[in-house]
Amino acid sequence: MVNRHKKARGQAMIELLIVAGFVLVPLFLAIPLLGKYLDVRAAAVQTSRYAAWERTVWYGGNAASSLGWFGVSRRWEANEKSDDQIRREMGVRHLSETDTDDAFSNADRSAGNFKGSTKTLWQDRNGQQLLANYSDIQNSVANDLAPGTLNVILDPIANFASTLGPFVLEMNGAYSAKVTIKVKDIDFDHFLAKDSTANFSETNVLLANGWSANGAEGTDKTSVKQQVKGLVPTSIIAAEINGVKIIDYVLGALSVFLPEVSKLDPGRIVPDNVPPDRLK
Q: What is the tens place of the pLDDT at every residue in 4-46?
């Protein structure tokens, strides 16, 4: 009985060593790596949201829609930011080791390296970075026609109106961004980073209208005022010469004989005008 008990104890110890050596120890080493990869996945989700959102307010250049038929092109004029500039901002603002004191800067869009370094969590047990190069961040952002039957019907109408006059209405309200982060694979024999990489890709889609209701005037077609001006014929005589509206010259001459015309304001466009009693 004693010999059998000793043999059982020795067998249990050997089984424990085998399980610990081939299962438990690798599992304990793999859990931190799993956490690192999950954090990279979360960062890919966050950066794809950032890229899609940036396109809703910085959608000029190649992302701007070009309306008009028969060779008439009225490009949607807006703030410009290229896909590459958004990619560089993502590297500095979301994929670098930053703290709450680090403010965003316009220089971020031209950055070529991480701010300080990549996230401290993203490294193997020897301290080798899993996201090694700035070029391992890739993204593509696009805006397309917003889904829905109504938008399909209104799109040719908007093109027709743009052909006739300066009426530009952006119909491409679907903003989609795909971000890919390449991180180094792990050699699970030694739990160290390899030269090969794995792709973490996420896509985010937003439905939005990127124009502002009361934006800047001039040639900025993002404002409602500039969009509807083509539908208000009297806005033509509201043009200025040497800083004075043409209509002011006309009304000034007519007011000599008809004083009441001085109260007229033809061509006036006031977006989002709220009655005074609603502001009380």
A: 555 555 666 666 666 555 666 666 767 778 888 889 999 999 9
Mean pLDDT of the chain: 77
Amino acid letter for position 250: V
Contact 171, 144 (CB under 8 A): no
**pLDDT-derived band of residue 48, with 50, 70 and 90 as boundaries?**
very high
Place of tokens 């005074």: 276
For residue 181, give the nearest of 30, 34, 39 by alpha carbon: 39
Alpha helices in 111-236 (DSSP H): 149-164, 224-228
Interhelix angle 25-57/83-93, rounded to 10 degrees, is 130
For 199, the token pair is 């792709």
Which backbone phi and psi does 119 adopt, to 5 degrees?
-60, 135
Q: What is the helix (H) or strand (E) element at residue 9, kind and residue range? A: helix 2-19
Q: Which two tokens stand for residue 170?
A: 């952006």
CB atoms within 10 A of CB 6: 10
Integer Cα distance of 235 and 248 in angstroms: 13
Note the pTM of the prediction, 2 decimals. 0.68
Element (DSSP H or E) covering residue 21:
none
- In whole angstroms, give the CA distance from residue 65 to residue 219: 16
> Furthest-apart CA pair in the chain: how many Å?
129
